[in-house]
Amino acid sequence: MDGQAKLLMNFTRDILKNGFLLLAALLAVLLCPFQAKAATLDWNNVDWTAGSLSQSFEIDSGNPGNDITITITGNTSRFNTNYPDDNTNLTGGLGSSEQSLQLYMNKFANDTEFVTVTITFNYAAGVDHVNFSIFDIDNGTFVDQIRNIKGIGFGVTNAVWLTGSSGNTVTSNNTLNASVTGTSSSNDTNSTGNAFFNFGNSKITTVSFDYGSAPGSGTPSTVQWVGFHDFRYRSVPEVNPALAALMVCGLAIGVRAWRRTKAA
User: How far apart are CA 182 and CA 175, in angstroms?
Assistant: First the structure.
């Protein structure tokens, strides 16, 4: 091979090498906007219309439209007037100004009645790292219970990991039968009735749970309530399929050209 041919080959290899570097840089730049973003629905920053059974919230500026919709179904006639509502009645030991969404029931008719809370995340690729607390799950002339806890996403039903407190007990943890049940009386403003709900890395679009009296506990003789506190999540990054295909094709062409040059 003469000097001119070697020079041309080295020049071609340099172009291809720099092309790969440019492609890598392009990938990094293009994928940056698709990084996961954490968000929080903070009851101190939003307002639930008293007595409403469904409401949507815009809390993530990076996601067009309403990000979250909360709907409550079931035996909703048992709610006290103007409930559910966000207030400072149940604070979970976090201070007198901390708000939660209070589910305040005027006595379920029996221990088979309940309400279902459904949280829908309006993200095309779903969300992960969903976690939240519920305050004042306790036991008096009633037995509070949170059960049928599910995180559903793209055809998969995901279990929750529960962490209870001294005023309640967790059963069947990290299974689809997980529940948390009040076992002793808890003050409305301390943390002894708290329970923490965590769906970890599961990619989900909907979370739901039932709130009622524990089966077999009989008919409650007084009012009962729990407080649904702030919840946090992380949006799952979206990648434009056409853009991804274009980048893959570009990389394949580059690799093929490099192999041909190497073989020469």
Answer: 19
